[in-house]
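quick one, 284 residues, struct below
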Amino acid sequence: MTSTNDMLRNAMTIDVEDYFQVSAFDSHIARADWDNWPSRVERNVERILELLDRHHVLATFFTLGWIAERHPALVRQVAAAGHEIASHGYGHQRVTQLTQPAFAHDVVRSKRLLEDLCGQAVLGYRAPSFSIAAGNLWALESLHRAGYRYSSSIYPIRHDHYGMPDSPRFAWRPRGETGVLELPISTVRLCGRQWPAGGGGYFRLLPYAASRWALRQVNFRDEQAGIFYFHPWELDPGQPRPAGLGARTRFRHYLNLHRTAARLERLLHDFRWGRIDDIFLGPV
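---
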């Protein structure tokens, strides 16, 4: 007999950025030099599209405006395949690095750019490095004014670079019923603390069985749809390696890149998946 939990769909999401744009490389690769680094985002996203198509999965692609300007055909290709296009901001600047006017400009610019390319409304936003937290919830007002309906930017964990550990684990509206819907990356409650259950580096660090167990806890114990994320560069062990990276950064960025694709194959097989807008917003 199939239970209601077996019918839950989880949201598969991809943060579309190139390997040289990650926040951990900020002090090693100048933003002005991005165009001088060989881009690998097209081949990596095309590999993701093939993987999703093979498993009959539609997903949400949080896409940088900077990437969209340089690879417009890729944005159109993703949208034409039936996936949701959402915004990851324009230039992968953390919200904590921007003034309120600069952030408002960034989210409007990226939204208009993506909508012009894909021909569909862009309803969602994810802050680079999950950089919305208690100290800058004003950013959600800017998203609301810009026409976004949801954000996936507040991570309810304790982390050295981001996180708002006391925030809700599931969908909520930080600015009240008229504000944007916040959709956190999935976490699991264990030993009085919230732990990541929705991808990122943890998916590469821990054995696949740990991710499967955690997501099953979200679906079966919490009876909630999960939200999972990864980056195109996480399927690319052959990417160029900047000089001078510290041991911690190298460990976090390059660990088990060669295992990501196989683990994603298993994840797509073991759970049901869909786009964020279809799962959490319903008919638009």
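The chain has ten helices and ten strands.
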